[in-house]
Input
Amino acid sequence: MFKPFAAAIALLAPMLLASPAGAQSEVMKLSLRYDGKLLVKVFDLRVEQQVTRTGYSSSARFQSYGILAAFKRLDMRATSSGRIVDGQVRPGTFWYKNFGGKTKRAVTVTWKGGDVDMSATPPFGGLGEPPASKAQKLSAADPLTRLLGMTLNASPADVCSRTTRFFDGKQLYALHFANPRPVTPGAREKRLGLVGGMRCSVRFEEIAGFKAKPPGQRDQGLKYGITVDFAQAGQGGPWLLSQVRGKTPLGSAVIELAGMTITGRDPT
Output
């Protein structure tokens, strides 16, 4: 299951400034690093993304440390690629594997020809109650594609006004963004060259592919307010996920953008 990546990317959950306007490039590359903390550092997430006018590719590695590793050892790696149509990302092929777990399951998900196919080695014991439907899968995308979609074509008016659906091959869930308000960049953001800033309230919702649960328990234990900050990588640069805060069953957690490198500008 891909929940650890998704939580790191958009729940709890990557340099310098982009190239100047006169250095327009047909390719934009982003290298992002996030630290996750429960008082002390508990995970590291690194994301590499490349965007052209017609397509994109992403890779990521998520590693757990300390108290989180004591509960569940994670060394997850993932790749994603797809098309860009009219400036919007379209999922193509998504692959991930946890090299640190007992199962070491490898999963491949493909969006193609109006359908979504999944293969897993070893196979899943079940696909949830209920499993995700074809229509639900087609309405969603993998976490790496969704992270890129949050970066491209974003603006202060829309970063906190959307519902985003994720599908990892088995579990399908949504993040509901709302309540946008400006936030002043702090020392960390200024060091990274981030400007502006918008803070969103976020609600997590299980939709399909999970164990059957009462409606009040379909939140992965994230029963308290989650906030997500977006900031811009310099005037005219892409909008990035800057910080996520929330309360988890293990305590208060924070995910922060800790380092980044961007070359080129958004070619879409």
